[in-house]
Amino acid sequence: MILANSSRQRAFAFAAGVAVSSLAAFASARAEDTKPACSEDAGLSLPKGFCATVFADGVGHARQLAVAPDGALYVNTWSGVYYGNDKPHDGGFLVALKDTKGAGKADVNVRFGPSFADGAHGGTGVWRYKNWIYAEANDKIVRYDIGSGLPAADARPEIVLSGMPIAGDHPMHPFAIDAHGNLFVSMGSATNACEVKNRMPHSPGNDPCMELETRAGVWRYDANKLGQTFSPNERYISGSRNSEGFDFDSAGRLFVTQHGRDQLHEDWPELFTAEQGFELPAEQMMMVKGGAWYGWPNCYFDPRRKKLVLAPEYGGDGGEKIGVCEKAEAPIAYYPAHWAPNDLKIYSGAQFPKAYSGGAFIAFHGSWNRAPSPQGGYNVAFQPLADGKPAGDYIVFADGFAGRHKDPGRAAHRPSGLAVAPDGALFISDDQAGRIWRVTYVGDRGAPIEAAPIARTLAASSPLATPPEGVHPDAGSQTALPVPPGSSAEKVALGKKVFHGEVGGATCAGCHGADGVGTPVGAALNTGLWLWSDGSLSGVMKTIEEGVAEPKQHPGAMPPLGGVELSKENLEAVVAYVWALGHAPNNR
Fold first, then answer.
1. Among 11, 94, 149, 204, which residue's Cβ finds the most Cβ atoms within 10 Å?
2. Distance between start and end Cα atoms, the chain
3. Integer Cα distance of 328 and 301 in angstroms
4. Dihedral of CA 122/125/128/131: which sign?
5. What is the annotated signal peptide range for this record (predicted)?
6. Could you tell me the CA-to-CA distances from 109 to 74, 97, 131, 491 in Å, in that order?
């Protein structure tokens, strides 16, 4: 697997000759063949020559990563409503991992920093600068001294920045620090598109959008200075809805990724079909230029037209009008809609093929709102770059994280953070099950960039295939659901199809997960817990008809009827299905 077949054939052909140089070439080829293959099946699909092993597992909801010169890997973990308010690990939210035996696995695992018992909730951003590890912690950026080794479990931080906004849709604060000590930190938007009523159909955008004073941009501070306080004055760029991935190239240019807006179809069905809703807008990679405006909330990037166009909340017509978007800074590259680029790292190592040098790895966390189409992302892509610009199309570098289901409620793993180790290995974190992979390369450094083989998954929201007789493949499990009073098993079965987008164009499963298991943005419906009614048919009907403008426990608002037009039959059916999920015997 190390050399291509044609390379082996050439080596053996040379070996048949009498020249000493030919014999040397053969010996070199055989040495390559003896390099160790993967010692375990880490479950990922990678290009040939690459190997993924599990460096650590079960560390918590692992977000972003940072590596110290001694090879120690630092992980920031998060908690809260995004993860169903599950119980965090004991100990601090920051994790230091180190392989002291050269086995490719962490044998040292130290948790440090404030814990859940201290009232902390963890965070996303983490970065190494000089002899310090900087980390996001609630509304703060703090730092820990690592000059003499890993921090102790009870290490106390110094506060670099405090008072960052943490309310609304995007409370996380990824950041980066350049060689001069400039600390660039993201303040994600509090809303989807600065609407008067967030995520509600036909709600116009606030004009002017006052959020831009304190949200939806990147701020700049001094990493060497303690005790700084967040304010509008330090804003460096604006109009970046939710910047997550940050890194610098060798020339010092700062690249960021942005999560694009949601719900074009649900909020403006007269302008966007369901298919357009899950294909628009594109995710973006941007080069940061001080003082620039990147378009949010007035604009979104339309990959069909390859330009920023006016959003419907600000007078857009579905893609033709440009308006103020002419003044916005365009992205340098773009990617499929709703894939959620959670991190970006420029490859600066010397282990991977030379073609990867200076390019960007991007961790795509995976979509929740492409239903009724199959969800997308849940992979790590590679974007070639040269002189600050794309040098070719992106490829999917690593796949298979989600396992059988690319769906936020059922995915086995969701890539979230990246880091390049001193030896050139690539670390990838997962915030679903807390796994850390270490990707290495053992092939020819002259090999070209190559996409990973397609990983086999099940489409979470696409229609299920049925035989001519019409027997549903999971009909056995369907019979386990109770039937609401006055309803029927046939109506519950229809409701399941409506819920999953197979009938009527609804996107219920996008927020609430396949089979109502819940996602980070929508409540689980199979627990028997009713947040907005007594769980009766009439109560469920009222909630779905009126929508949920201000959720109690999750960030995802629900428009009336889920943002689509449902017939009376389909509405009654999905109500019956939701009732049945919440009243199943195991929930009583």
1. 94
2. 54
3. 11
4. negative
5. 1-31
6. 10, 5, 19, 52
Token pair 């006052």 in the structure block, residue: 210
Read off φ and ψ for residue 404, nearest 5 degrees: -75, -20
Looking at the DSSP bridge assignments, the partners of residue 7 are: none
214 in Cβ contact with 164 (< 8 Å): no
Q: What is the 3-state secondary structure (H, E, C) of 13-39?
A: HHHCCCCHHHHHHHHHHHHHHCCCCCC
Query: Residue 3, Cβ neighbours under 10 Å: how many?
Result: 19
Q: List the one residue out of 342, 328, 332 whose CA is nearest residue 379.
A: 342
Q: How far is CA 74 from CA 143, 334, 558, in A?
A: 12, 29, 37
Residue 271 corresponds to which tokens in the numbers above?
């302008």
Q: CA angle at residue 390 from 386 to 392, to 5 degrees?
A: 100
pLDDT (tens digit per residue) in 17-43: 333 333 333 333 333 343 445 767 789
**Pairs from 161-167 (Cβ < 8 Å, separation ≥ 24):** 161/185, 161/221, 161/228, 161/229, 161/230, 162/228, 162/229, 162/230, 163/139, 163/229, 163/230, 163/231, 164/139, 164/140, 164/230, 165/139, 165/190, 165/214, 165/215, 165/230, 166/138, 166/139
In whole angstroms, give the CA distance from residue 404 to residue 415: 15
Asked if 411 contacts 364 with a C-beta cutoff of 8 angstroms, the reply is: no
d(C-alpha 266, C-alpha 201), whole Å: 7
Distance, in Å, from the CA atom of 500 to the CA atom of 461, rounded to the nearest integer, reads 6
Tokens representing 586 are: 């195991």
Q: Which residue has the tokens 């420029």?
A: 346
Task: Considering only CA atoms, give the Rg of the chain.
Answer: 25
Residue-wise pLDDT tens digits, 162-199? 999 999 999 999 999 999 999 999 999 999 999 999 99
List phi, psi (to 5°) of 529. -95, 125
Strand pairing of 385-386 and 92-98? unpaired
User: What is the C-alpha separation between 386 and 355, in angstroms, rounded?
Assistant: 11
User: What sign does the dihedral 318-320-326-331 (CA atoms) show?
Assistant: positive
What is the chain's length? 588
d(CA 159, CA 153): 18
With vertex at residue 149, the alpha carbon angle to CA 147 and CA 150, rounded to the nearest 5 degrees, is 120
Sign of torsion, CA 40 43 46 48?
positive
What's the one-letter identity of residue 238? S
CA gap 1, 386 in Å, rounded: 30
Phi and psi at residue 24, to the nearest 5°? -65, -40
Amino acid at site 208: P
- The amino acid sitting at 130 is K
* 22: CB partners within 8 A, 6+ apart: 14, 15
Identify any residues that bridge with 309 across adjacent strands, giving them in sequence order: 300
Q: Which residue's structure tokens are 């009073």?
A: 485
d(CA 275, CA 289): 34
Closest CA to 281 of 369, 171, 365, 384: 369
**Prediction pTM value:** 0.81
Cβ-contact 434, 60 below 8 angstroms? yes
Quote the CA–CA distance of 333 and 360 in Å, as a whole number: 11
User: Which distant-in-sequence residues (6+ apart) come within 8 Å of 31 by Cβ?
Assistant: none
What are the Cα distances from residue 395, in Å, to 187, 354, 411? 29, 16, 21
